[in-house]
């Protein structure tokens, strides 16, 4: 059950030196609220990550985008991260003013994301933005049985360790227990231009003997990242989103299909949920990145 790879993902969120070695604490999870440095995904800062997931290590450089937790340099522009999901899509996707992405992960104890989820999301961001991506641990999160959108936003702000701007764009991911106030069938939600949450208890409850919670978690997390990047039609207006499920794809093979973030995911997607963007999604992201 939850979560066989928790010890592995902890390595991504430890206070590390230049080579990422720690003689005493290499297997320990970061305690909520611990002050941590940013840890590069895929290796030491400046190494390459396999953005395509094929193991050839030919992705763009993965950089230590916020070595000191950020907050010192003023933002070179005014990113609209306080708007709705998708409002900050140009800030994340366009080459400037943000030249690097920080994926700030905050998790309640027992709700930590798997190693595969964090790596897949980071590689996905590298592939669609062309920027270096680093993973950073956020601060402690409160416990709640039912989360409203305002509570998710407030928790993200309280746990924030890296500021927006200064050449970086920060995506804040929360992994929490409990459920969403607006629907107990929701597995994940994007609540602001830079904030999304995954409800780990609901993810666990959605698993079946054939579809494990790890696969669902990775799909749901990538789905919410897609919303932050402007999919589907929350930034562009192509008319291709599902009229019955606005903001979602009609393609069952896209991670942006509506059922991916629903407790119906295992019933409607019996072969397992998709975890990648389809061609139409990638075309939209490229259009935003190129100034649409």
Key attributes of the depicted protein:
6-stranded mixed β-sheet, 25% helix, disordered N terminus, single chain, 292 residues, two-stranded parallel sheet
In short:
The chain is α/β, with parallel strands linked by helices and 292 residues long. It has eight helices and eight strands.
Polypeptide structure, described:
- This protein has 292 residues and is α/β, with parallel strands linked by helices.
- The chain has helices at residues 6-10, 89-93, 115-129, 149-159, 200-206, 213-228, 265-268, 279-289, and strands at residues 39-40, 100-107, 132-137, 146-147, 168-176, 179-180, 188-192, 195-199.
- It has a domain at 6-208.
- It contains eight helices and eight strands; from the N terminus they run αβαβαββαββββαααα.
- It has a six-stranded mixed beta sheet, sandwiched between helices.
- The longest helix has 16 residues, at 213-228.
- It is globular, with a radius of gyration of 17 Å.
- Residues 3-77 have low confidence and may be disordered.
Please render the helix and strand layout as text.
Blueprint: H1 6-10, E1 39-40, H2 89-93, E2 100-107, H3 115-129, E3 132-137, E4 146-147, H4 149-159, E5 168-176, E6 179-180, E7 188-192, E8 195-199, H5 200-206, H6 213-228, H7 265-268, H8 279-289
Parallel strand pairs: 2-3, 2-5, 4-6, 5-8
Antiparallel strand pairs: 1-3, 7-8
